[in-house]
Model the fold of this input.
Amino acid sequence: MDWSQFKTALPRRSSAEKEDSKNQLITEWGRKLLKEAEESRNKKGNARPLRILTEYPRPQMVRLKPTGKYEILNGWWKYAVMDSRRVPQEWEGQILVPFSPETRLSFVKRQLKPEEYLWYEKEIQVEKYPENQRVLLHFGAVDQKCEVFLNGKKMAFHTGGYLPFTVEVTGRLHPGRNVIQLCVQDLSDTSYLARGKQKLERGGMFYTAQSGIWQPVWLEWVPLHYIEQMWITPLYDDSMFDIRVRLNGPVQDETAGGYSTAREMVELKLYEPVINLAEQSDGACCFCNAGRKILRELKLETDPVRLDPVHRECYMRVQVPDKKSWTPETPWLYGLSIAVGEDHLASYGAMRCFTVEEDEKSIPRLCLNRKIYFMDGVLDQGYWPESLMTPPADGAMVSDILRMKEMGFNMIRKHCKIEPDRWYYHCDRFGMLVWQDMVNGGTSYNLVKLCYLPTLLPALFARKKDQGSTNYKRTGRKQPESRRMWQQETEETINLLYNHPSVAAWVLFNEGWGQFDSANACKAVKEQDHTRFVDHASGWFDQKQGDMRSVHNYIRKPEVEKDSRPFVISEYGGYAYKMEDHLWTDRLYGYGDYKDQEKLQGAYRALRKQIRALEKEGLCAAVYTQVSDIEEEVNGILTYDREVWKILPEKQE
Done:
């Protein structure tokens, strides 16, 4: 054990109310947006409209014309912070949506406290929309509790800060002026709700708490009867796509005073695969453009399964001729179009599968498309100095992914947050595997017992149980409602990201944070999605479940443990180096404290060599910490502002 690697990672706190002198870092995308926003705010009259994150938010469900109308509502909203839920009589100013009020790009820079309420207001003008259509108001994510009002009427209440939700506003939205209002409360780490790495008293590996709207807001016009969701499953061995479509409700038969039993006509087209490596995309699905070769065309009269009075599902399968496999080296994507009634969607899928199979030495291995595939990963928490969890631009997401490919990584572990859907779209098209964490929650943790002692003494904590009231208390899951919320949000996360071919694994719990009943949780996730790997306990508290034995190793020489499951090191490295003029604060957190870049580069190179040598002994995957510095953490490959490579790709050395 190397104590020098550990001492810089000891617990620490830093009040979010005391601003550091250096935390004015900003990326090139944030700098550009900041300038445009300041000009927009200062100008009147003929000021150029401010365009923020205007790319289509949901690339796997693009509605085609004539019903494919949508409007992005990002931009200036009114805001006020209140000590109660009463509607503000006066507004404090303007906030730039979708940036949290705690961020620089919001133009507010104020920490919302648990006892406060953040109010938003946005006026929109709506032209007379066609009859026989519905209007949906989409929120990418609002942290944590949110009430939605339209023209003074409460339309919805949503709890949970990381998942999208949709409000139908057809009956309330009218031609002309409309007013959208939100009332948000964020309990942050004072409750059991999902919070990821957010903490009101930030410090070390926990970051500034944020609140409110932090992903795009948009309106969408759809037919009266429309596709709510799709599940696209590649049946790799059979060269087929299995497609499940959920419709919003049965067709009402006005004359009979009830619901029609008429069958739905479903039209499906499968288009030739493409590798789409263009650096930018407007998000309109480019895999189904006119002129592309159609491989298969189906027209089925199907009898939808009636789930309840307002939901139906139908199923179909389509054969893929001469399949081309999706891999990080060859990210082939097949275009799909699906039409039910007047609703026409463009989407895409990929031929790939994930399995556990033994090699010639009977060592269990992770496989991609039935072939042993070493998943060489990097931890990514997706934070930005000017905007925290909100990417400042579509190109910023693309840049991080491509830079990690340049470093030689073929997998990203998305840690403790859920990105906007476009991030996963970019991983699909560029060929970057994703291990997706479920966002942790629960009440307060004793980090010494839950985190630091297991790091020092892994043998004593590796098999700790996670069931029963005593263990629930230790991991912050004493309340039954807390456990229920995690189960619900896990199911929603899988549904949200199910169709992305790049997503290879679900990571259920990390280092015991909020962990409970992980064996049963693993079984439930496998029932919902049997096509991907499950890491039920990353770090320790292993219950001998899931598809891998998953450990963290920051301070010991890496080695392989024998297990009936594939062995992975799901976190390692984290080498700390302070790059002057690119620091968010003077405080340091990480593993080790390298004094110059050359020594950091040499240590990284030597560690990577050790990791790859273990592949022969049975190591199946490894995740280096991490993509970039974040606040006090200075263990990134890139600086927090993304301006400097602290560790160079091999070809740049």
Remarks:
- The longest helix spans residues 480-497.
